[in-house]
Design a protein that fits this description.
The radius of gyration is 22 Å and the shape is globular. The protein contains 18 helices and no strands. It is mostly helical. Helix 2 packs across helix 10. The longest helix has 37 residues.
Length: 481
Amino acid sequence: MDLLNKYKHLVKNTFIFAIGTFSSKILVFVLMPIYTSTLDPDQYGVVDLVVQTANLLFPLVTLGMTNAIIRFGVDRSYRKNDVFTAGLLATLLGFSAFLCFSPLLGLIGGIGDHIWLLIIYVFTSCIKSLSSTFVRSKGCTKLYAFDGFLSTLVNCILTILFLVGFKWQITGYLLAIILADVLSILFLFFAGDLLRNIRIRGMSLPTAVAMLKYALPMIPTNVFWWVVATSDRYIIAFMISESANGLYAASYKVPTILMLVSSIFMDAWQVSAIKEHKQKDRAQFFSQIFNAFQSVMFLSSAWLIPFSKVFTMILVSEPYYASWQFIPFLILANAFCCMVNFIGSVYMVEKRSVATLVTTIIGAVANVGMNFAFIPLFTTETNPIGGVQGAAIATFLSYFLVFIIRAIHTRQFIRIRFNLLKFGLNTALVTLQAILMITAVPLWILYQILLTAALTALNGGALFKSIRKVLNKRKHKTRRA
């Protein structure tokens, strides 16, 4: 497959995945005013701890098989039935073990009254994730996209009904997600005919062993990623208050826009990257895609940071307005998280799950250490929630560290080429943007305009040239035909 066809296939899949993924991710913004008007900061802080605890449990319960499903499901060397059956059996086994230890969840402060909802939430989310990932690996992109749209719609309707209508608060928040996941599972099993892919008898044991060998190192990897992304929530709740954690959770919603853009692309990119793992020109393909991807990340950051206050005023109620000050560095953190995930696709293609684990451990240790150092450093008597800023900076620096390590280490597998000077200048400019936004120095609006213009000029031109190059190739090919 030539480069033009690779681009076309990637763009096509990205567009299809965008339909489903965008609808599910945009739910965060549509429902944010409802969350912040029906839940006070303390309750929202508890909800956030419940959700983040569930995120920690997902890879443990699935035994990391969700990662293996996409890697082995796309690979034509393995039968689809073997892949799905192995993933499902491993998840059921993991959930059975989880039930035995579930009473320990009561030791986590703030979620003791919601343990059974948390258990059900974990189970339904794991089965939904397994099913939707397998559908994507089979190439059923339209079904995957429609499922994303359907589950989003159901979640939105139930959230409004439970929080606004019934006023069930935390219970309503979680129940809406659970019921939406249940409907999604039923839909995927029916529309995707997943029952026919369950074949316990005759299942290939070598395939199951290979999947476990790949997946098991991903369990601690996902746990440590959770530490990087989430440990600050628990540390904030412990060192400051649950109310401060509620503000921090609310501030995460705007940076989620970057994760939205990235996740849409990464769904399609993982499929393309795996298919290209034996191609001679894959280094060129990876390099060109990464250069365009990092330009999108820096451009998005440059345009989001100046509007931190505006987004906060639109999305949250008055008690949460102070959360705007944590948004700039969380935008930077999410931008580098997205680029870390892209570089990590090299490990996925090469089945280097141990390398993924080691680099993630480094980021997790750095994140926890910097959280305990920076939160007290930024906490003052006049600004007791200032320590939350320390957590945001710690998260950014930990992702930045992991990116540097992975960018260097993966060169021995796939040499991704990018302009180091330009990358460093981009990083410096968006960091300066974040600092000026938070400190609100005199003429800060003018500085934001100038920096945004500079970043747009630095990245927009190259991105436009890449798009035009692909379009010109397409026109040339059409004329030859």
